[in-house]
Amino acid sequence: MELLERLTIIPDRAQQVVVLTGAGISAESGVPIFRGTGSMWEDPLARRLAARAGPPWNTKATWEFYEWRRALVARCEPNTAHRTLVAMESYFTNFCLITQNVDGLHRRAGSKNLLELHGNMWQGRCPSDGALVDLPDTPLSSLPPYHSCGTALRPHVVQFGEPIDPTILSESLKASMRADLFFVIGTSGVVAPARDLPLLALNKGAKVIEINREETVLTPHVTVSIRGKAAEILPRLWNELLEKAGVRDAPKPY
Ligand code: NAD
What we know:
Elements: H1 3-7, E1 16-21, H2 44-52, H3 60-74, H4 80-91, E2 94-99, H5 105-109, E3 114-116, E4 119-125, E5 132-134, E6 154-157, H6 166-178, E7 181-185, H7 196-203, E8 207-212, E9 224-227, H8 230-245
Parallel strand pairs: 1-2, 1-7, 2-3, 7-8, 8-9
Antiparallel strand pairs: 4-5, 4-6
Helix pairs in contact: 2-3, 4-8, 6-7
The structure holds nicotinamide-adenine-dinucleotide.
Nicotinamide-adenine-dinucleotide (NAD) binds next to strand 8.
């Protein structure tokens, strides 16, 4: 059966569309996920480096772990799922992409209305004054890198137990509450508060569509759950949506 038929989605440009992504959307770009098969912990070097990283997070050891991650992501490219989200953003009048990913691949693909809940590994943050510093090059010339105020920077990545930037969290909650359609793609749904966003949208009457290669803790709650790889399912869904809407001029990301 066609995906759209199953989902009963109306291709209405004026709908509020919200997308929450997790590590799974970057898996086909070659970025390892966090849990389960294909996780970064399958690499003994990642385990060794991560074991030495820790508070106050602006140490050489922490940056050695992040340089390993940054070098890996630098070799990866956004995939068709990232690019389909860019096409969707240009189609829908109200579109918001919320990501738990820190790899920067949504930005590289060209997404604009983007909320990075957990930060971005291509930025450093000054623990003294909170300033964000772009660090686009890897390897860095010194570990740790320093802010112009003389303080060692930490990676701009939210660590377990740390709060989310209140502005980003509040924007994410607002968008989720207004959603007509909510896509939740490639996340295990175990990290709070991200996992609460689709449930909030559902409670406010949104249709929630999950795309994941496996069943998750969110699966029993969502409107429809589609098993498969994001880079295959999402472009197919988008194609069907454009056909149904009779749109010929929309960008095709493949
Ligand atoms: P997770 O590793 O807990 O879950 C990944 C999910 O993606 C799983 O449910 C898995 O079944 C699914 N998946 C794997 N390949 C897929 C594919 N090709 N298509 C669709 N689904 C696929 O990741 P999470 O839920 O994002 O939570 C992990 C945390 O770790 C987040 O906070 C995130 O910041 C961080 N993290 C980020 C990255 C990244 O930036 N790429 C990578 C690893 C971890």
